[in-house]
Amino acid sequence: MKLSFHGQSVIYFEANGKKVIVDPFITGNEQSDLDASTLDVDYIILTHGHADHFGDVVELANRNHATVIGSAELADYLTTYHGVKDVRGMNIGGKANLDFGSVKYVQAFHSSSFTHEDGIPVYLGMPMGVIIEAEGKTIYHTGDTGLFSDMSLIARRHPVDVCFVPIGDNFTMGIDDASYAINEFIKPKISVPVHYNTFPIIEQDPQQFKDAVTVGEVQVLQPGEEVKF
Fold first, then answer.
1. Which SMART domains match (predicted)?
2. What are the start-end ranges of the E strands in 84-209?
3. How far, in Å, CA of 192 to CA of 229, rounded?
4. What gap in Å lies between CA 229 and CA 5, rounded to an integer?
5. pTM for the complete prediction?
6. Which of 45, 136, 197, 210 is the most exposed place for a label (fewest CB within 10 A)?
7. How many domains does the chain have?
8. In the 8-state DSSP scheme, what is residue 143?
C-alpha cells in the first residue's frame, strides 16, 4: 500500500488500484508538493469544511469525475453550489464499503464551515475523524480535533496501524495533548504528526512530539514522503 503525506493534513494513498486523497488543501499551501491541476484521483475524503481541508476538492472532483465522501451537509453543499455530481454524504458512525476499502467516520471535536467572499460562514456539518481500512491496514486520520477519551474506544474497535494526528495547537491539539492521545488512547503502530508549520500560528517542532511518544513508532514525514510500513 502506498501512503504519503503532502503538507497540512493532506494524505494520499493507493489501494486496490484506486487513488485516494484526504483533505486536499493544495493550492495556497506552501508546504504541498502536489499540483492540483494535474493530480489524478478516484476518491476524495473530507474530514470537515474548513478551507485548509476543503482545499481543491471542487476542481479535483469535477476534472477527475472523482467521488467525494464527506458529511451530509458537505455533500449537499458541493452538489448545490459547485455542481459536483458524484458525492456520498455520510455521518458519524456510518461505514461505506468501497472498491478501494472501507471508510468509517468517527467523532472529532472541532468546527466545520466554509466562509464565502462576503465573510458569511456556511455550516457544513459535524467535523469528523475517519477510519480507513484497505489492503489489510487500518488508518486513523483524526481530522482536526481536541483531545477526547473516546479515542480509546475508537482504537479498541479498530486497532490502528497508522494514525495521522494534529500537533499544531491553537486550532487543534498541541504536542502535549497529541502525544497523550497516542500514548494513552490510540496506541497505533505508527504515528505521523500533521497540521503544523503551515501558518505561523501553528508552528511546532515535530521532534518534540516524537520525543514525547512512547508507544509504537513516530515517522515525521516531509511533504511527498511515504509511510514506511
1. Lactamase_B
2. 87-90, 95-97, 102-107, 113-115, 121-123, 128-134, 137-141, 162-166, 190-194
3. 12
4. 14
5. 0.98
6. 136
7. 1
8. -
CATH code of residue 167 = 3.60.15.10
**Hey, what's the cell of 86?**
458524484
212 exposure class (CB count in 10 Å sphere: 0-12, 13-18, 19+): middle
Q: What is the pLDDT of residues 12-21, one digit of tens each?
A: 999 999 999 9
226 domain-assigned: no
Which amino acid is it at 83? G
**Residue 121 corresponds to which cell in the numbers above?**
460562514
d(CA 130, CA 46) in angstroms, rounded, equals 9
Residue 45 included in any domain? yes
Q: Is residue 44 part of a domain?
A: yes
Cell numbers at 184, concatenated = 494513552
Residue 227 falls within a domain, yes or no? no
Q: Domain of 52?
A: 2-221
Task: Give the list of residues 6+ apart from residue 192 with CB closer than 8 angstroms, or none.
Answer: 5, 162, 163, 164, 165, 218, 219, 220, 221, 227
Q: How far is CA 84 from CA 55, 62, 132, 208, in A?
A: 14, 6, 23, 41
Residue 107 cell numbers, joined: 467523532
Q: Centre a 10 Å sphere on the Cβ of residue 156 and count the other Cβ atoms it contains.
A: 11
How far apart CA 203 and CA 45 sit, in angstroms, is 25
Segment 129-141 shows an average pLDDT of 98
Strand 67-71 versus strand 43-45 pairing type: parallel
